[in-house]
Amino acid sequence: MLELSYLRQNTEAAIAGLAKRRIDAETTIADILKLDEQRRQTQVELDEVLSQSNSISKEIGILFKSGKAAEANELKSQTTELKEKSKELQQAQEQIQHALDQLLVSLPNVPNALVVEGGGADDNVEVASWGEKSKLYDGAKPHWELTDQHKLISFDLGVKITGAGFPVYTGKGARIQRALINFFLEENTKAGYEEYIPPHFVNAASGYGTGQLPDKEGQMYHMQDDDLYAIPTAEVPITNIFRDEILDRDSLPIRCTAYTPCFRREAGSYGKDVRGLNRLHQFDKVEVVNISHPDDSYKILDEMVEHVAGLLQKLGLTYRILRLCGGDMGFTSALTYDFEVWSAAQERWLEVSSVSNFETFQSNRLKLRYRGQDKKTHLCHTLNGSALALPRVLAAILENYQTADGIKVPEVLIPYTSFEWIK
Question: What are phi and psi of 109, to 5 degrees?
Answer without folding.
Answer: -70, 150
